[in-house]
Amino acid sequence: MSPLTHTLAVVIAYWSVIFAIHKLLQIYDPLNLRYMQCQERLGLRTTFAYMRCYTKIFNGSFKTCGLCCHRKIARAWFNTGVIVALFLMLVSLFILSLSLYQSLFGGSGGGEKERGGQILTPIMPGVNLPWNQLAHYFLTLLICGVVHEAGHALAAVVEHVRINGFGLFILFLYPGAFVDLHSDHLTVISPLRQMRIYCAGVWHNVILVGVAVLFLYSFPYLLMPFYTTGHGAIVLGVVKGSALEQKLSPGTSLIQVNACPLSYVADWGSCLEGVGSHSQKGYCVSEDFLSQYKLHPLNETKEEEEGGRDCCSLDKKDSHLCFFLSFRKRNQVNPENRFTCLRARSIVTDGTCVTNDDCSAIQSNSLCVTPAIGSQTYLIKIRHTSLGDPILYLGGLEQLKHSIILSDYHPSHSSVPLWLPGSLHTLCIYIASISGALAVLNIIPAYALDGHWTLIALLEYLMPENAYRTKISNVILLIGSSLLLCNLLSAIWILMYW
């Protein structure tokens, strides 16, 4: 079963259960009256794949907040929102046009190429959204939706348009919010005042992006009383099935990769890139030490993947590794004997070498021994602050990079949760990206979006007596709606193809 099919099956099963419970409560005599009273009180409405609640309890709060603002300052605030929203309307049309062009002409039949050119991409849990980040995603959508609709409500209060109510909903698997404004009040005010209300939601989404980015950059200072940074990358979790699952535990601080020091999570990636930018280096070992081990010619070793060699017996596989010895001017040793099986932990040190000349500066009568491993395999020494020896990792860099979940924030006390900074950081990233995307999408001049009503008010403001105003708005709305629909269909097709 593909990830998309699995996600759809889970969501359909979830809504089937919810809808079945809803119907049972409606027809079950002992509970149906209480259930209908509860629906009435909470403004609940349930159908398959849709549920909403509607209330008037926040009307007074919106009115109080709107009236507390100085009228001139509030007008200036929402006028700025109109300017920003109109600019984003042009940006949204450009993005949709570019995205559609890249989808149609950016690839040459390859799914990977087409996906790389796709700007508009639906987010599907289990497909392109990890299940363990589902809570962050739902909370982000809820926050962005509430802030968006609160912007409309506050602008409506400032423009003396009555608020009928406020509600939350979930459609299929996407939560959101809505505000119910008095339509008669809204239609009689001037076009500029209408635009302040229509653009306020998008404007507040833009502000939310700025707040989220500000929090991202302020985290080290905001969390300073409870967390410290700069002392290594602390492990939050290890991916199941990875090579490090049994060697690392949450709370362990990684402080060094080979000779590269770790102070922050960013250093983890840069240190691994440094390892990958060079071929596997060797280690200096004295000839006296090597004389204790048997040396094997090439024909006594077994070839492995990507050019690696194996010269160790089965009972030494877990702790030993085959090393290559490069001889130069060593007449006392047969130059054909170039491989030996050594205990990796006793060989791997911070000092590295490429040739025997590198070792002569460190210790006389020593040789440079290099792990006889494949070109895409690396032997890496990872130092940490926990008790025990450093970790030796043998494998690919990409697997190592994505097998550990790290954080910069070290709890100052054992009672402080380890996961909180990472969770807040992820939430802020989601809010910044999704709130920005919702701002751009909502202001598209397409039917039923904020851009629809903003465009009509804008044309009425610019061309109050023009007989072709309605035709012009219909043409623009048709173009915007077509662009949006084509992009959505293209994105869904690519998501299914992937």
Automatic annotation (TrEMBL):
Pfam families: Peptidase_M50 (PF02163). Residues 138-485 form the Peptidase M50 domain. It comes from the Eukaryota. One of its GO terms (biological process) is regulation of response to endoplasmic reticulum stress. Its EC number is 3.4.24.85. It is a multi-pass membrane protein. The keyword Transmembrane helix applies. Keywords: Membrane, Transmembrane, Transmembrane helix. It is found in: Endomembrane system. It catalyses: Cleaves several transcription factors that are type-2 transmembrane proteins within membrane-spanning domains. Known substrates include sterol regulatory element-binding protein (SREBP) -1, SREBP-2 and forms of the transcriptional activator ATF6. SREBP-2 is cleaved at the site 477-DRSRILL-|-CVLTFLCLSFNPLTSLLQWGGA-505. The residues Asn-Pro, 11 residues distal to the site of cleavage in the membrane-spanning domain, are important for cleavage by S2P endopeptidase. Replacement of either of these residues does not prevent cleavage, but there is no cleavage if both of these residues are replaced. GO terms for molecular function: metalloendopeptidase activity. GO terms for cellular component: cytoplasm; endomembrane system; membrane. It is an enzyme of class 3 (hydrolase). Coiled coil: none annotated. Zinc metalloprotease that mediates intramembrane proteolysis of proteins such as ATF6, ATF6B, SREBF1/SREBP1 and SREBF2/SREBP2. Catalyzes the second step in the proteolytic activation of the sterol regulatory element-binding proteins (SREBPs) SREBF1/SREBP1 and SREBF2/SREBP2: cleaves SREBPs within the first transmembrane segment, thereby releasing the N-terminal segment with a portion of the transmembrane segment attached. Mature N-terminal SREBP fragments shuttle to the nucleus and activate gene transcription. This is Membrane-bound transcription factor site-2 protease. It comes from Amphimedon queenslandica (Sponge). The lineage of its organism: Eukaryota, Metazoa, Porifera, Demospongiae, Heteroscleromorpha. The gene is 100637842.
